[in-house]
Amino acid sequence: MKIEKRWVISFILISLVAISGLFWKPTEALAETGFNAADTIVTADVAWLLTSSCLVLLMTPGLSFFYGGMVGKKNVISTMLQSFICLGVVTLLWVVVGFSLAFGSSIGFTLNGTHYGIIGNPLDFAFFDQVGVLPHSQMASTIPFILFALFQMKFAVITPAIITGSFAERVRFISYLLFICLFTLLIYTPLCHMVWHPNGLLGSYFGVKDFAGGTVVHMSAGFAALAGVLVLGKRKNSEHIPTNIPFVLLGTGMLWFGWFGFNAGSALAANSTAALAFATTTVASAAAMLTWIFFDRLHGRKVSALGACIGAVVGLVAITPAAGFITIPQSIFFGFIAAIASNKMLYWKKLKAIDDTLDVFACHGVGGIMGMVLTAIFAQGENASLLYGGWSVFLHHMIALVLVAAFTFFGAILLYKITNSIIPLRVSEESELIGLDLSQHDEKL
Questions:
Q1: Total structural domains within the chain
Q2: Within a domain: residue 275?
Q3: Is the terminal CB of the chain with fewer CB neighbours within 10 Å at N or C?
Q4: Residues in CB range of 292: below 8 A, 6 or more apart
Protein backbone atom coordinates (compact mmCIF):
# COMPACT_ATOMS: atom_id res chain seq x y z
CA MET A 1 0.00 0.00 0.00
CA LYS A 2 1.39 3.37 -1.05
CA ILE A 3 1.27 6.01 1.68
CA GLU A 4 1.00 9.63 0.54
CA LYS A 5 3.84 11.97 1.54
CA ARG A 6 1.40 14.40 3.19
CA TRP A 7 0.38 11.78 5.75
CA VAL A 8 4.03 10.96 6.48
CA ILE A 9 4.74 14.65 7.08
CA SER A 10 1.68 14.92 9.34
CA PHE A 11 2.85 11.99 11.44
CA ILE A 12 6.35 13.46 11.72
CA LEU A 13 4.88 16.76 12.95
CA ILE A 14 2.77 15.13 15.65
CA SER A 15 5.80 13.06 16.68
CA LEU A 16 7.93 16.18 17.03
CA VAL A 17 5.26 17.84 19.17
CA ALA A 18 5.00 14.77 21.40
CA ILE A 19 8.78 14.45 21.85
CA SER A 20 9.50 18.17 22.25
CA GLY A 21 7.24 18.29 25.29
CA LEU A 22 9.70 16.03 27.09
CA PHE A 23 12.49 18.60 26.74
CA TRP A 24 10.50 21.74 27.53
CA LYS A 25 11.70 23.31 30.76
CA PRO A 26 8.69 24.82 32.54
CA THR A 27 8.87 28.21 34.24
CA GLU A 28 7.29 28.57 37.66
CA ALA A 29 4.42 31.07 37.89
CA LEU A 30 5.27 33.80 40.40
CA ALA A 31 3.37 36.77 41.84
CA GLU A 32 5.80 39.22 40.23
CA THR A 33 4.96 37.77 36.80
CA GLY A 34 1.27 38.62 37.16
CA PHE A 35 -0.15 35.85 39.34
CA ASN A 36 -2.05 35.89 42.63
CA ALA A 37 -1.38 33.71 45.64
CA ALA A 38 -3.14 30.35 45.90
CA ASP A 39 -5.29 31.58 48.81
CA THR A 40 -7.19 33.91 46.44
CA ILE A 41 -8.83 30.91 44.76
CA VAL A 42 -12.61 30.70 45.30
CA THR A 43 -13.63 27.06 45.38
CA ALA A 44 -17.20 27.74 44.23
CA ASP A 45 -15.84 29.46 41.13
CA VAL A 46 -13.52 26.51 40.48
CA ALA A 47 -16.42 24.06 40.71
CA TRP A 48 -18.55 26.08 38.31
CA LEU A 49 -15.78 26.57 35.76
CA LEU A 50 -14.89 22.87 35.85
CA THR A 51 -18.54 22.11 35.14
CA SER A 52 -18.75 24.78 32.44
CA SER A 53 -15.64 23.45 30.71
CA CYS A 54 -17.24 20.00 30.52
CA LEU A 55 -20.46 21.53 29.17
CA VAL A 56 -18.65 23.46 26.43
CA LEU A 57 -16.67 20.37 25.44
CA LEU A 58 -19.98 18.52 24.99
CA MET A 59 -21.04 21.10 22.41
CA THR A 60 -18.58 19.81 19.79
CA PRO A 61 -19.98 16.25 19.77
CA GLY A 62 -23.41 17.91 19.83
CA LEU A 63 -22.50 19.92 16.76
CA SER A 64 -21.36 16.73 15.01
CA PHE A 65 -24.82 15.18 15.54
CA PHE A 66 -26.51 18.44 14.54
CA TYR A 67 -24.60 18.58 11.25
CA GLY A 68 -24.46 14.83 10.70
CA GLY A 69 -28.22 14.49 10.69
CA MET A 70 -28.63 17.19 8.05
CA VAL A 71 -26.39 15.82 5.30
CA GLY A 72 -27.01 13.01 2.82
CA LYS A 73 -26.53 9.38 3.83
CA LYS A 74 -23.19 9.05 2.01
CA ASN A 75 -21.59 11.84 4.04
CA VAL A 76 -22.83 11.44 7.62
CA ILE A 77 -19.64 9.97 9.10
CA SER A 78 -17.30 12.37 7.30
CA THR A 79 -19.35 15.39 8.37
CA MET A 80 -19.48 14.27 11.99
CA LEU A 81 -15.76 13.48 12.03
CA GLN A 82 -14.89 16.94 10.71
CA SER A 83 -16.41 18.41 13.86
CA PHE A 84 -15.18 15.72 16.22
CA ILE A 85 -11.55 15.81 15.03
CA CYS A 86 -11.26 19.41 16.27
CA LEU A 87 -11.17 18.01 19.80
CA GLY A 88 -7.81 16.49 18.91
CA VAL A 89 -6.26 19.00 16.53
CA VAL A 90 -7.16 22.25 18.26
CA THR A 91 -6.48 20.88 21.76
CA LEU A 92 -2.84 20.18 20.91
CA LEU A 93 -2.45 23.46 19.02
CA TRP A 94 -3.88 25.32 22.01
CA VAL A 95 -1.45 23.71 24.45
CA VAL A 96 1.63 24.15 22.26
CA VAL A 97 1.14 27.76 21.15
CA GLY A 98 -2.53 28.72 20.67
CA PHE A 99 -3.25 29.81 24.24
CA SER A 100 -0.11 31.90 24.27
CA LEU A 101 -1.08 33.61 21.02
CA ALA A 102 -4.55 34.33 22.42
CA PHE A 103 -3.69 35.39 25.98
CA GLY A 104 0.06 36.01 26.08
CA SER A 105 1.45 39.51 26.64
CA SER A 106 0.19 41.85 23.94
CA ILE A 107 2.09 42.45 20.72
CA GLY A 108 0.68 45.48 18.99
CA PHE A 109 1.13 49.24 19.11
CA THR A 110 1.05 52.13 21.56
CA LEU A 111 -1.35 55.05 21.13
CA ASN A 112 -1.49 58.03 23.51
CA GLY A 113 0.52 56.10 26.08
CA THR A 114 -1.72 53.01 26.02
CA HIS A 115 -0.64 49.71 24.48
CA TYR A 116 -3.19 47.88 22.32
CA GLY A 117 -2.62 44.25 21.47
CA ILE A 118 -3.28 42.44 18.21
CA ILE A 119 -1.86 39.06 19.17
CA GLY A 120 -0.16 37.47 22.17
CA ASN A 121 3.49 36.59 22.62
CA PRO A 122 3.79 32.96 21.41
CA LEU A 123 6.50 32.17 23.98
CA ASP A 124 4.73 33.33 27.15
CA PHE A 125 2.61 30.23 27.72
CA ALA A 126 4.00 27.80 25.13
CA PHE A 127 3.34 24.18 26.16
CA PHE A 128 1.28 25.72 28.99
CA ASP A 129 4.40 27.21 30.54
CA GLN A 130 3.40 29.10 33.75
CA VAL A 131 -0.13 27.78 33.27
CA GLY A 132 -0.68 26.12 36.61
CA VAL A 133 -2.63 26.31 39.85
CA LEU A 134 -2.08 30.00 40.64
CA PRO A 135 -4.75 32.44 39.41
CA HIS A 136 -3.76 35.18 36.97
CA SER A 137 -4.24 38.63 38.46
CA GLN A 138 -5.92 40.10 35.34
CA MET A 139 -7.60 37.07 33.79
CA ALA A 140 -9.96 35.03 36.00
CA SER A 141 -8.37 35.99 39.32
CA THR A 142 -10.31 33.48 41.46
CA ILE A 143 -9.61 30.24 39.59
CA PRO A 144 -6.39 28.40 38.68
CA PHE A 145 -4.91 29.75 35.45
CA ILE A 146 -4.87 26.25 33.98
CA LEU A 147 -8.66 26.04 34.41
CA PHE A 148 -9.07 29.36 32.58
CA ALA A 149 -6.84 28.03 29.77
CA LEU A 150 -8.86 24.81 29.47
CA PHE A 151 -12.17 26.66 29.50
CA GLN A 152 -10.97 28.92 26.70
CA MET A 153 -9.66 25.90 24.81
CA LYS A 154 -13.19 24.55 24.36
CA PHE A 155 -14.18 27.78 22.57
CA ALA A 156 -11.20 27.42 20.25
CA VAL A 157 -12.18 23.80 19.54
CA ILE A 158 -15.75 24.44 18.46
CA THR A 159 -15.07 27.49 16.27
CA PRO A 160 -13.49 25.70 13.27
CA ALA A 161 -15.97 22.86 13.78
CA ILE A 162 -18.82 25.29 13.07
CA ILE A 163 -17.27 26.17 9.70
CA THR A 164 -17.47 22.57 8.45
CA GLY A 165 -21.20 22.71 7.74
CA SER A 166 -20.68 25.18 4.91
CA PHE A 167 -18.48 22.99 2.70
CA ALA A 168 -19.79 19.60 3.83
CA GLU A 169 -19.88 16.79 1.26
CA ARG A 170 -16.99 18.08 -0.86
CA VAL A 171 -13.83 18.82 1.15
CA ARG A 172 -10.73 16.61 1.33
CA PHE A 173 -10.09 15.56 4.93
CA ILE A 174 -6.32 16.13 5.06
CA SER A 175 -6.79 19.59 3.49
CA TYR A 176 -9.40 20.39 6.10
CA LEU A 177 -6.96 19.45 8.88
CA LEU A 178 -4.38 21.87 7.49
CA PHE A 179 -6.96 24.63 7.15
CA ILE A 180 -8.23 24.39 10.73
CA CYS A 181 -4.64 24.61 11.99
CA LEU A 182 -4.06 27.78 9.97
CA PHE A 183 -7.46 29.23 10.93
CA THR A 184 -6.93 28.62 14.64
CA LEU A 185 -3.47 30.14 14.71
CA LEU A 186 -3.91 33.04 12.29
CA ILE A 187 -7.55 34.10 12.63
CA TYR A 188 -9.03 32.76 15.85
CA THR A 189 -6.15 33.52 18.25
CA PRO A 190 -5.58 37.15 17.17
CA LEU A 191 -9.32 37.82 17.22
CA CYS A 192 -9.57 36.22 20.65
CA HIS A 193 -6.67 38.37 21.88
CA MET A 194 -8.10 41.58 20.44
CA VAL A 195 -11.51 41.03 22.09
CA TRP A 196 -10.82 39.23 25.38
CA HIS A 197 -7.28 40.07 26.45
CA PRO A 198 -7.20 43.01 28.91
CA ASN A 199 -5.06 44.99 26.44
CA GLY A 200 -6.76 43.75 23.27
CA LEU A 201 -7.41 46.31 20.54
CA LEU A 202 -11.12 45.62 20.02
CA GLY A 203 -11.93 45.25 23.70
CA SER A 204 -9.89 48.05 25.24
CA TYR A 205 -9.83 50.62 22.42
CA PHE A 206 -13.14 50.01 20.61
CA GLY A 207 -14.93 48.89 23.77
CA VAL A 208 -16.42 45.84 22.08
CA LYS A 209 -18.74 43.90 24.39
CA ASP A 210 -18.63 40.18 23.70
CA PHE A 211 -19.71 38.28 26.78
CA ALA A 212 -19.19 34.74 25.48
CA GLY A 213 -18.09 34.73 21.84
CA GLY A 214 -20.63 36.20 19.45
CA THR A 215 -17.80 38.02 17.69
CA VAL A 216 -14.86 35.74 18.48
CA VAL A 217 -16.62 32.45 17.73
CA HIS A 218 -19.76 32.89 15.64
CA MET A 219 -18.92 35.84 13.42
CA SER A 220 -15.46 34.46 12.70
CA ALA A 221 -16.86 31.01 11.88
CA GLY A 222 -19.74 32.46 9.86
CA PHE A 223 -17.57 34.62 7.61
CA ALA A 224 -14.94 31.90 7.26
CA ALA A 225 -17.76 29.55 6.22
CA LEU A 226 -18.93 32.02 3.58
CA ALA A 227 -15.37 32.32 2.29
CA GLY A 228 -15.06 28.53 2.13
CA VAL A 229 -18.20 28.18 0.04
CA LEU A 230 -16.96 30.75 -2.46
CA VAL A 231 -13.50 29.18 -2.75
CA LEU A 232 -14.60 25.54 -2.99
CA GLY A 233 -17.61 26.12 -5.22
CA LYS A 234 -20.91 24.28 -5.42
CA ARG A 235 -21.43 20.56 -5.02
CA LYS A 236 -22.11 18.53 -8.14
CA ASN A 237 -25.47 17.62 -6.67
CA SER A 238 -26.63 20.31 -4.26
CA GLU A 239 -29.97 18.63 -3.59
CA HIS A 240 -30.13 16.22 -0.70
CA ILE A 241 -32.59 15.02 1.92
CA PRO A 242 -31.42 15.17 5.55
CA THR A 243 -30.61 11.64 6.60
CA ASN A 244 -31.48 11.61 10.29
CA ILE A 245 -33.67 14.30 11.87
CA PRO A 246 -33.46 12.58 15.30
CA PHE A 247 -29.69 13.18 15.10
CA VAL A 248 -30.43 16.88 14.57
CA LEU A 249 -32.77 16.92 17.57
CA LEU A 250 -30.17 15.15 19.71
CA GLY A 251 -27.45 17.52 18.57
CA THR A 252 -29.61 20.55 19.30
CA GLY A 253 -30.31 19.28 22.81
CA MET A 254 -26.59 18.72 23.43
CA LEU A 255 -25.77 22.17 22.07
CA TRP A 256 -28.45 23.87 24.16
CA PHE A 257 -27.29 22.02 27.28
CA GLY A 258 -23.62 22.81 26.59
CA TRP A 259 -24.42 26.46 25.85
CA PHE A 260 -25.15 27.04 29.53
CA GLY A 261 -21.45 26.45 30.14
CA PHE A 262 -20.57 28.51 27.07
CA ASN A 263 -22.51 31.58 28.25
CA ALA A 264 -23.00 31.28 31.99
CA GLY A 265 -19.45 29.98 32.38
CA SER A 266 -18.15 33.13 30.72
CA ALA A 267 -18.92 35.02 33.91
CA LEU A 268 -15.79 33.18 35.12
CA ALA A 269 -17.35 32.90 38.57
CA ALA A 270 -20.32 31.36 40.37
CA ASN A 271 -22.17 34.64 40.77
CA SER A 272 -25.28 36.59 39.81
CA THR A 273 -23.93 37.37 36.33
CA ALA A 274 -23.64 33.66 35.64
CA ALA A 275 -27.23 33.16 36.78
CA LEU A 276 -28.42 35.98 34.52
CA ALA A 277 -26.53 34.58 31.54
CA PHE A 278 -28.01 31.14 32.24
CA ALA A 279 -31.51 32.61 32.14
CA THR A 280 -31.11 34.84 29.07
CA THR A 281 -29.54 31.93 27.17
CA THR A 282 -32.49 29.60 27.49
CA VAL A 283 -35.13 32.33 27.08
CA ALA A 284 -33.61 33.72 23.88
CA SER A 285 -33.33 30.23 22.40
CA ALA A 286 -36.93 29.41 23.27
CA ALA A 287 -38.14 32.65 21.68
CA ALA A 288 -36.11 32.04 18.54
CA MET A 289 -37.32 28.46 18.17
CA LEU A 290 -40.98 29.47 18.34
CA THR A 291 -40.46 32.52 16.12
CA TRP A 292 -38.77 30.35 13.47
CA ILE A 293 -41.58 27.81 13.19
CA PHE A 294 -44.34 30.45 13.22
CA PHE A 295 -42.47 32.55 10.65
CA ASP A 296 -42.08 29.46 8.47
CA ARG A 297 -45.83 28.83 8.69
CA LEU A 298 -46.60 32.42 7.69
CA HIS A 299 -44.61 31.77 4.51
CA GLY A 300 -46.49 28.60 3.67
CA ARG A 301 -43.88 26.17 4.96
CA LYS A 302 -44.88 23.38 7.32
CA VAL A 303 -43.73 23.32 10.92
CA SER A 304 -40.68 21.07 10.97
CA ALA A 305 -38.39 19.59 13.58
CA LEU A 306 -35.46 20.78 11.49
CA GLY A 307 -36.75 24.36 11.54
CA ALA A 308 -37.35 24.25 15.30
CA CYS A 309 -33.77 23.06 15.85
CA ILE A 310 -32.23 25.68 13.57
CA GLY A 311 -34.30 28.40 15.25
CA ALA A 312 -33.16 27.32 18.71
CA VAL A 313 -29.50 27.41 17.67
CA VAL A 314 -29.90 30.85 16.07
CA GLY A 315 -31.29 32.15 19.36
CA LEU A 316 -28.31 30.70 21.22
CA VAL A 317 -25.92 32.34 18.76
CA ALA A 318 -27.59 35.76 18.98
CA ILE A 319 -27.69 35.91 22.77
CA THR A 320 -24.06 34.84 23.22
CA PRO A 321 -22.39 38.30 23.08
CA ALA A 322 -25.00 39.86 25.38
CA ALA A 323 -25.90 37.03 27.76
CA GLY A 324 -24.62 38.74 30.91
CA PHE A 325 -25.38 42.31 29.86
CA ILE A 326 -29.16 42.42 29.25
CA THR A 327 -32.46 41.71 31.01
CA ILE A 328 -34.53 38.58 30.52
CA PRO A 329 -37.37 40.40 28.70
CA GLN A 330 -34.79 41.86 26.31
CA SER A 331 -33.47 38.35 25.62
CA ILE A 332 -36.91 37.42 24.24
CA PHE A 333 -36.51 40.19 21.67
CA PHE A 334 -32.98 39.02 20.85
CA GLY A 335 -34.29 35.56 19.96
CA PHE A 336 -37.28 36.93 18.09
CA ILE A 337 -35.48 39.38 15.81
CA ALA A 338 -32.47 37.13 15.20
CA ALA A 339 -34.71 34.26 14.12
CA ILE A 340 -36.50 36.45 11.57
CA ALA A 341 -33.24 37.86 10.18
CA SER A 342 -31.59 34.44 9.89
CA ASN A 343 -34.72 32.84 8.43
CA LYS A 344 -34.93 35.49 5.71
CA MET A 345 -31.24 35.08 4.92
CA LEU A 346 -31.46 31.28 4.86
CA TYR A 347 -34.10 31.40 2.13
CA TRP A 348 -32.42 34.25 0.21
CA LYS A 349 -31.96 32.98 -3.35
CA LYS A 350 -28.51 34.52 -3.82
CA LEU A 351 -27.19 32.76 -0.73
CA LYS A 352 -28.81 29.50 -1.77
CA ALA A 353 -27.14 29.82 -5.17
CA ILE A 354 -23.61 29.59 -3.73
CA ASP A 355 -24.42 26.33 -1.90
CA ASP A 356 -23.67 26.85 1.77
CA THR A 357 -24.52 23.21 2.52
CA LEU A 358 -25.90 23.59 6.04
CA ASP A 359 -26.55 27.35 5.98
CA VAL A 360 -23.73 28.19 8.36
CA PHE A 361 -23.48 31.84 7.34
CA ALA A 362 -27.23 32.40 7.58
CA CYS A 363 -27.30 30.94 11.10
CA HIS A 364 -23.95 31.69 12.73
CA GLY A 365 -22.76 34.62 10.62
CA VAL A 366 -26.05 36.51 10.58
CA GLY A 367 -26.89 35.40 14.13
CA GLY A 368 -23.51 36.68 15.29
CA ILE A 369 -23.98 39.99 13.47
CA MET A 370 -27.45 40.45 14.96
CA GLY A 371 -26.11 39.62 18.40
CA MET A 372 -23.31 42.17 18.10
CA VAL A 373 -25.62 44.93 16.83
CA LEU A 374 -28.27 44.25 19.48
CA THR A 375 -25.60 44.11 22.20
CA ALA A 376 -24.40 47.56 21.15
CA ILE A 377 -27.99 48.79 21.53
CA PHE A 378 -29.20 47.08 24.73
CA ALA A 379 -26.19 46.10 26.86
CA GLN A 380 -26.11 47.49 30.38
CA GLY A 381 -23.22 48.12 32.73
CA GLU A 382 -19.85 49.73 32.07
CA ASN A 383 -19.57 51.60 28.74
CA ALA A 384 -23.26 52.32 28.18
CA SER A 385 -24.86 51.06 24.97
CA LEU A 386 -27.05 53.03 22.57
CA LEU A 387 -30.23 52.59 24.62
CA TYR A 388 -28.51 54.26 27.57
CA GLY A 389 -26.93 57.13 25.64
CA GLY A 390 -23.77 55.39 24.48
CA TRP A 391 -23.64 56.65 20.89
CA SER A 392 -19.86 56.31 20.73
CA VAL A 393 -20.04 52.71 21.99
CA PHE A 394 -22.57 51.86 19.30
CA LEU A 395 -20.46 53.52 16.60
CA HIS A 396 -17.34 51.70 17.77
CA HIS A 397 -19.22 48.41 17.66
CA MET A 398 -20.30 49.04 14.08
CA ILE A 399 -16.74 49.90 13.05
CA ALA A 400 -15.48 46.78 14.82
CA LEU A 401 -18.17 44.70 13.11
CA VAL A 402 -16.89 45.78 9.69
CA LEU A 403 -13.26 45.18 10.71
CA VAL A 404 -13.98 41.71 12.10
CA ALA A 405 -16.04 40.75 9.04
CA ALA A 406 -13.28 41.89 6.67
CA PHE A 407 -10.50 40.28 8.71
CA THR A 408 -12.20 36.89 9.00
CA PHE A 409 -13.64 36.78 5.48
CA PHE A 410 -10.59 37.88 3.51
CA GLY A 411 -8.21 36.19 5.93
CA ALA A 412 -10.07 32.90 5.49
CA ILE A 413 -10.04 33.24 1.69
CA LEU A 414 -6.26 33.64 1.84
CA LEU A 415 -5.91 30.59 4.11
CA TYR A 416 -8.13 28.48 1.84
CA LYS A 417 -5.98 29.43 -1.14
CA ILE A 418 -2.77 28.67 0.76
CA THR A 419 -4.21 25.32 1.82
CA ASN A 420 -5.34 24.54 -1.72
CA SER A 421 -1.87 25.32 -3.07
CA ILE A 422 -0.37 22.77 -0.68
CA ILE A 423 -3.10 20.11 -0.81
CA PRO A 424 -6.17 20.42 -3.08
CA LEU A 425 -9.25 21.25 -1.02
CA ARG A 426 -11.90 19.50 -3.10
CA VAL A 427 -12.27 15.80 -3.50
CA SER A 428 -12.48 14.37 -7.01
CA GLU A 429 -15.82 14.14 -8.81
CA GLU A 430 -15.75 10.38 -8.35
CA SER A 431 -15.12 10.68 -4.61
CA GLU A 432 -17.93 13.21 -4.27
CA LEU A 433 -20.27 10.93 -6.21
CA ILE A 434 -19.71 7.88 -4.01
CA GLY A 435 -19.67 10.00 -0.86
CA LEU A 436 -16.95 11.09 1.52
CA ASP A 437 -17.68 8.35 4.05
CA LEU A 438 -16.35 5.73 1.66
CA SER A 439 -13.91 7.77 -0.41
CA GLN A 440 -12.20 9.52 2.53
CA HIS A 441 -12.65 7.09 5.42
CA ASP A 442 -13.68 3.71 3.99
CA GLU A 443 -16.66 3.62 6.33
CA LYS A 444 -20.42 3.74 5.88
CA LEU A 445 -23.62 3.73 7.89
A1: 1
A2: yes
A3: N
A4: 307, 308, 310, 311, 312, 314, 339, 343
Widest distance between CA atoms in the chain? 68
Which tens digits make up the pLDDT trace of 406-416?
999 999 999 99
| Domain span holding position 250 | 38-111+121-441
For the segment 156-189, what is each residue's pLDDT rounded down to a tens digit? 999 999 999 999 999 999 999 999 999 999 999 9
Residue 351 resides in a domain: yes
> Is there a domain that residue 316 lies in?
yes
Strand partners, 227: none
Q: Name which residue leads in pLDDT, 5 or 47.
A: 47
Strands 106-111 and 114-120 turn out to be antiparallel
Mean pLDDT value across residues 48-75: 96
pLDDT of residue 8: 83
- Going 174 to 179 to 185 to 188, the CA torsion angle's sign is negative
Residue 287 lies in a domain: yes
Q: Is the distance from CB of 214 to CB of 375 less than 8 angstroms? A: yes
Residue 327 sits in a domain whose CATH number is 1.10.3430.10
